[in-house]
Task: structure prediction
Amino acid sequence: SSSARREGFSTRRRAIAEPGSERGERGGNKSGAARQAPMPRILRKETGVASLPSQGPSGSDGKPGHKDFLSIVVLGASGDLAKKKVIPALFALYYQNQLPTDNFVIMGYARSDLSDEKFRETLEARLTCRVDERESCAGKMDEFLAKCFYCQGGYDSEEGFERLNHKLLIHEGRHLDTTTADEDADANRVFYMSIPPSVFLDAAECTSKKASATKGWTRVIVEKPFGRDSETSAALNEGLAKHLTEEQVYRIDHYLGKELVENLIVLRFANLVFEPLWNRQYVENVQIIFSENFGTEGRGGYFDQYGIIRDIMQNHLLQVLALFAMEPPVSLDAEDIRNEKVKVLRSMRTLDLEDVVVGQYSGRTTKDATYPSYLDDETVPEGSIVPTFAAAALFIDNPRWEGVPFLMKAGKALDKREAEIRMQFKGIPGALYGDKSLGNNELVIRIQPEEAITLKISNKIPGLGMNLNRTKLNLQYSEGYKEFQFPDAYERLILDAVNGDKRLFIRSDELKAAWDIFTPALHRIDAGELPPELYPYGSRGPVGAHYLASKYGVRWST
Result:
């Protein structure tokens, strides 16, 4: 029973108490951004699964860095994102030995009044092991929870962050006291801001002034949304820059941590067969599609503040587009990759309202069920015109992509759940076989669900005649990589932040370029210049999306 489970949990935990405060004065508070000490590195194997080198992670000076202490502070630790995604991702990294075994602590921080014991109880039900790793992680849960502590305080409270800093110094001091001068161990801190955007700047200021690392680096992971438009995003960036350096800030977009998104660069630049075709000479159009088969389901109040374009298109899908369309980087270094992404975004035309269709789902009744409309959600303001669907035609004015339409589509309460990229190639000159019904070649990269890479080709049907059909060269990840586990996007990105690898994080100038593309159209949509078309719950979306595609000679593939 649940009561017995809690009692057993308490019995196992009663020996875990807050460490003594005899070393609480070690170090001191440091105002402003913390210095950037050499960072420990955790290497990735060719499989994409991170692993510790045998001698432990080492700093840039070549000395073993396995004695460094790591504190991960989760601001907003009592919220849904922290409990459902962030802390379970940390546990997955821990039981896979991607985080330190001994010199490591997780500190939850939130306004809720919780004890360490109560905090661990709220986490325990959320922690699970992957099916094929249950044996290896059995017993790891107790170890992990023993490293989880809690501090109560406001996000704008310097006093609260002083208490947080004091608790961290106790844990760090106990570890550093066991190291020798020759080991030169640091105590590094990662802050994950799983908090509302309204308190980002207050929390960043308090972190910088009262809780930055005194001997080691400090990194701050910031969750989207990064503003509502160019102006608010710039204000947020300027506010963060007052308290943190750009090197310390990790703007996370979990979509960039998905396996097939990270694989885009490999697919393009590690395969000679694709890169020569990846341009306007051979590509007819590119479609980037995101659809969910469910509505807001009680989250409409939050969603209504942003809408589908801000929630999905301007960040997730635009980041995918940038990786897909960028030029080859000089190297795989984070800054080289992000430089190329910024170039693509700056080459894009500002979105014209004539190239946008928006929609909002209406209710629908079938013989099996009744599906509510967006406005039926009690958390949605009455009469809201916020779009739950959007389709847009985007263009990149550079030598590689000039004239190629990039069609983007995202929506809720549609007929299926999927996210994919579709690159349709041009027709064959001369049309030797003359069968237009076969369609053009198409490369499909399915991001979710059932990850896959598919190339659609024309092929002869076996037999005496010369009959052709359309078939697939199909890499289904579930079949081709049965022996591999797919890490959650948050696992990958948190590990990258610990390593100081910023390839999959968003730079401030990249964010500005992204907002500049969408802001003018968003302001006009907000003003009611483009009312949403209604579409039934469970349909393919508003009819206007098909007219938009046909305007550029394109048919949606899905």
